[in-house]
Amino acid sequence: MSTKTYDPKSVSVIIDGIYLTGFSEDMVEIEKDEDSFEVKVGAQGDTTRAKINNNLGTIKITLQQTSPQISYLDGLANSGKMFPITVISAGTTRETSSATEAFIGKPAARKYGNAAEDREYEVKCMDLKME
Question: Which of 87, 88, 85 is nearest to 124 (CA)?
Fold first, then answer.
């Protein structure tokens, strides 16, 4: 039996050259917006597979309220600036997700109470690659 160990410290998120810190428990989630293929079945059961060339994707980043990059990400959201983003998981299973053109649609929702709350940012990627 071979036991593998996942370490969240092996995950890095880099936006426009800035390494993000102060992640919450959920850290980061990456997903393409659409399937890569679509299948159509004819009346007699024959099938056709069509490639979908949509490279749009979303990267959700969840930071703690005290993360030093909160104001940076809010500033990017307010400016509408396009930027590159890379997410690297350098653990046992090495994975890289990246986009050369991405933007944040809006600042994170803000909630204040008797405990620190998370801030979630949705990064819209125009050319998401998941390798």
Answer: 85
The C-alpha atoms of residue 122 and residue 102 are separated, in whole angstroms, by 10
54-102 residue pLDDT tens: 999 999 999 999 999 999 999 999 999 999 999 999 988 899 999 999 9
* Range of the structural domain that residue 33 is part of: 8-130
Tell me if 80 is assigned to some domain: yes
* Residue 3 included in any domain: no
Tokens of 34: 């659409």
Tally of domains in the chain: 1
Which DSSP letter does residue 50 get? E
